[in-house]
Amino acid sequence: MRLENKRAIVTGGGSGIGQAIARRFAAEGARVAVFDMNADAAAETLKRLPEGRHLSMAVDIGDSAAVDAAVAQAVKAFGGIDVLVNNAGTGRGPNDGSNELYAGQAERAAQIARGETPTAHPDQTIHMSDEGWQHVLNVNLNGAFWCARAVVRQMAKDNRPGSIINIASTSSVSGEGPIHYVTSKAAVVGLTRGLARELSSRGIRVNAINPGPTNTPIMQSIPDEAVKALEANIPLGRMADPMEVANAALFLASDESSYATGSTVTVNGGTWFL
Asked: Has 102 been annotated as catalytic?
């Protein structure tokens, strides 16, 4: 098994990509700690893992103290941590203009489809609240850093190598999507590169995955018209299955990627070719 005796934390493991990664890792021999805001969702993922000494817990990764406590609990249960997957994230915050963004995008797509000159504007920035902006940055960027910091402290204490995998997004390059989400995911790629350079002397590898549109609960919250327009621009003609992203995470967590650090693996159905 490719992750035999490895101990992993997967944040946002209650659904979507996170759940797929937790299942893939456990199937390859890892012990997995599933972190999620929703305790019931984390527990449901736990039920789907093969028999083993796994655990689940409710964790708000936007709270640094909560992250430290949860990582300490996982370390106590497992004896250490070898792999961290920073998957937890959000694409929406309070009063963040998302409704205006998606409505404007859908209307522009409809106007183009009708052969009209597009006049609709996907104005999100105009409607963005401070709270909405800060919420998404706090979860997607600060949460990733706080989880990495807590795990790296333990890896350094144990003097053990390890692997950190940050789930970013192709939005980090294309600029497509909610502006706070785009910004946060671009920052996650920067965090990945900075950590990779800093931690290489400790044998801790840090890489990112840029998934394209993936069939997850976040995507299911987007209006159907916007999803159809999105899929029409994907060369492979569909969104990714979460397990397809999990397979990339498995590679980065395993010794097969022992010379990869600071890299970003793209799993996007060929969207770059547009």
From this structure: no
- How many residues appear in the chain? 274
Q: Which of 181, 182, 240, 253 is catalytic?
A: 181
- 94-144: pLDDT as tens digits: 888 888 887 887 787 778 778 899 888 888 888 899 999 999 999 999 999
Going from N- to C-terminal start, the domains of the chain cover 7-91+144-273
The CATH number corresponding to 7-91+144-273 among 3.40.50.150, 3.40.50.720, 3.40.190.150, 3.10.150.10 equals: 3.40.50.720
Nearest by Cα to 217 from 98, 119, 90: 90
Strand order in the sheet with 204-211: 55-58, 31-36, 7-11, 83-86, 162-167, 204-211, 264-267
pLDDT at 176: 81
